[in-house]
# Entry
Amino acid sequence: MASSHWLLKEPIISLPETKIINAHSGWLPKHKGLDSIGWSIKDGDPLGLTTHYIDKGIDTGSILKFYEVKPEKNENLNTIWNKIVAQKPHAFLDTIKSIEENQIEPQNQNDDYPPHIPMTFEELLETNNYFKKITS
# Structure
């Protein structure tokens, strides 16, 4: 999966001999759910995407790999979002190759971080303004 506002459910997630990989635009395990890029910026955490196996929860499956995307001068929330999304094909290919070559040990998540609630429009504007300050 590359992005969705819907959760996959049973019986799909438990098909025999099948594992579904998601590329989540956020740093797991901390930033689950929607607006994870905005929450990462607000919390001063790394930006990028995490590949993980899908399970019954919201971005709670075993973590495979994190792909950091560094902000550059004069970027904003929209430009960094586009850069992160553009990394998804590379992340999928790299993750699959790494699994095939036994170079990844999936890391189970704990319940320390619940999924975020979506940011309000005002919070997104505030985050975008803060992001502009840190990349100017």
Observations:
- The first strand starts at residue 21 and ends at 24.
